[in-house]
């Protein structure tokens, strides 16, 4: 099973190639010589260097205390999450899965071999606790694809100990700079190796700034595709909020294809929209469960102990764990499916050769504003129809439908923001406020449904259902308050909505 570690480090280079004495920098009481370590790492990528283009590194390394396979994801400058797996002859499946959204069907092949002679120093405090590790690395790089090419260099690396204070790195850098050491010109050894042995295919001009209406829509759609690909490994790792963010990106992409049908050929985009709807539904299984569990757990904890009768907390915890475990396993299977990978390929193809209609070549302000106004009108009809209905199941369903239209209006405004400016930003804020209210209402509907199910299980087991009923009543009151707030909020929003 792969392990994860947060890596915080900085790289430097020096003309004289030496490591200055760092004793006395902040809490550093001593610098301990840990000797020379021989490291041998082979970096893997696709032939067209897709991992390198995304600043990901996958390597197999021997030597040192952490020999094995390492997959690194960028978090911030100088900060990466490193996923580790034991040594094996081939790329471990758990790591291959984490790069599947980028690799797809391409083969991972050896790209570069780096052999380093690492002179290690431990920076410790007065009690001997490790604060950071500084090393002087003499590196030999060998390109393994194309013509045989090699390069050599020396660099200094300073890595913070687990749980260390990042401010220490700033103080160490100040000492290093005074000694003539400067930050490295490349963010990683692999990047430098590629530059010195013939370059990388990463270089490119990227998409041009949006000019036409179609450009703006495609830029927004491209951003959502990028989010999907980027969040795939986070969803597989079950990181907080990853499923939610991936689901939102999926919905944004689908909404964009629906809202801007006047600019895009529906014969091409409608099938893509159908697949995005499928993916959003699959992501929703896990996300809806997560939201429900959070809501019910918080509500239960807010009750005085005297009002909690029977094993309600234990049953709720068991229910949440069972549902989440099953949902996450199912979702991982979805991300490994041919259908999902084909969807990513289809999005790539659509963006590479967009099915633009004549209107897409027009100036953006008028064309995008027309689509946004149309979304607003549909929202207005949906909200006002829902508010005319009496409280109950029919209104709940109508408010849920209105929520979907509010999201579509919000995403349309987001896509048009660069072209329309202030009005689009204002509409986005209003729609965010509205969807929050409508979302809370829908969460209450789902919470009440779940409480009825849990109460039925408790009743069948001969347990008290008093607490379930109490929570149900509170959810009912909360929904009524939300509906009242929604009516008042809509008077403010609706007065400015398109007619």
Automatic annotation (TrEMBL):
Domain CHAD positions: 210-495
Domain CYTH per the UniProt entry, residue ranges: 5-200
Taxonomic superkingdom: Bacteria
UniProt cross-references to Pfam families, sorted A to Z: CHAD (PF05235), CYTH (PF01928)
InterPro entries documented for this protein: CHAD_dom, CHAD_dom_sf, CYTH-like_dom_sf, CYTH_domain
Protein name: CYTH and CHAD domain-containing protein
């Amino acid at each position: 099973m792969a392990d994860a570690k947060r890596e915080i480090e900085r790289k430097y280079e020096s003309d004289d190639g030496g490591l200055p004495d760092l004793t006395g920098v902040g809490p550093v009481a001593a610098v301990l010589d840990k000797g020379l370590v021989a490291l041998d790492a082979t970096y893997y990528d696709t032939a067209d260097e897709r991992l390198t283009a995304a600043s990901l590194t996958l390597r197999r390394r021997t030597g040192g205390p952490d020999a094995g396979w390492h997959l690194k994801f960028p978090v911030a400058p100088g900060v990466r999450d490193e996923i580790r797996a034991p040594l094996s002859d081939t790329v471990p499946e758990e790591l291959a899965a984490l790069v599947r959204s980028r690799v797809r069907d391409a083969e991972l092949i050896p790209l570069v071999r780096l052999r380093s002679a690492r002179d290690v120093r431990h920076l410790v405090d007065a009690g001997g606790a490790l604060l950071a590790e500084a090393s002087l690395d003499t590196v030999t790089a060998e390109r393994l694809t194309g013509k045989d090419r090699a390069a050599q260099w020396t660099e200094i690396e300073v890595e913070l100990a687990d749980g260390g204070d990042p401010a220490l790195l700033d103080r160490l850098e100040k000492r290093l700079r005074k000694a003539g050491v400067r930050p490295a010109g490349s963010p990683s050894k692999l990047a430098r190796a590629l530059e010195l042995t013939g370059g990388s295919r990463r270089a490119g001009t990227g998409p041009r700034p949006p000019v036409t209406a179609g450009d703006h829509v495609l830029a927004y759609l491209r951003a959502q595709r990028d989010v999907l690909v980027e969040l795939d490994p986070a969803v597989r790792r079950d990181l907080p909020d990853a499923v939610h963010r991936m689901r939102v990106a999926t919905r944004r992409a689908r909404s964009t294809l629906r809202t801007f049908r006047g600019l895009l050929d529906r014969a091409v985009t409608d099938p893509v929209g159908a697949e995005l709807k499928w993916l959003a539904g699959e992501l929703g299984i896990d996300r809806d469960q997560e939201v429900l569990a959070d809501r019910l757990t918080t509500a239960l904890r807010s009750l005085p102990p005297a009002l909690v009768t029977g094993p309600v907390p234990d049953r709720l915890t068991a229910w949440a764990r069972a549902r989440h475990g099953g949902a996450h396993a199912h979702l991982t299977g979805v991300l490994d499916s041919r259908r999902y990978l084909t969807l990513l390929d289809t999005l790539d193809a659509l963006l590479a050769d967009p099915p633009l209609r004549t209107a897409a070549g027009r100036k953006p302000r008028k064309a995008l504003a027309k689509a946004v106004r149309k979304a607003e009108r549909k929202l207005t009809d949906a909200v006002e129809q829902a508010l005319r209905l009496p409280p109950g199941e029919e209104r709940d369903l109508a408010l849920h439908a209105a929520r979907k239209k509010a999201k579509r209006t919000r995403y349309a405004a987001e896509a048009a923001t660069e072209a329309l400016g202030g009005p689009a930003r204002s509409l986005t804020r209003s729609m965010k406020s509205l969807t929050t209210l409508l979302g809370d209402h829908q969460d209450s509907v789902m919470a009440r449904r779940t409480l009825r199910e849990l109460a039925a299980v408790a009743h069948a087991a001969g347990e008290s259902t008093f607490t379930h009923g109490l929570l149900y009543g509170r959810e009912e009151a909360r929904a009524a308050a939300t509906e009242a707030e929604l009516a008042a909020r809509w008077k403010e929003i609706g007065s400015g909505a398109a007619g």
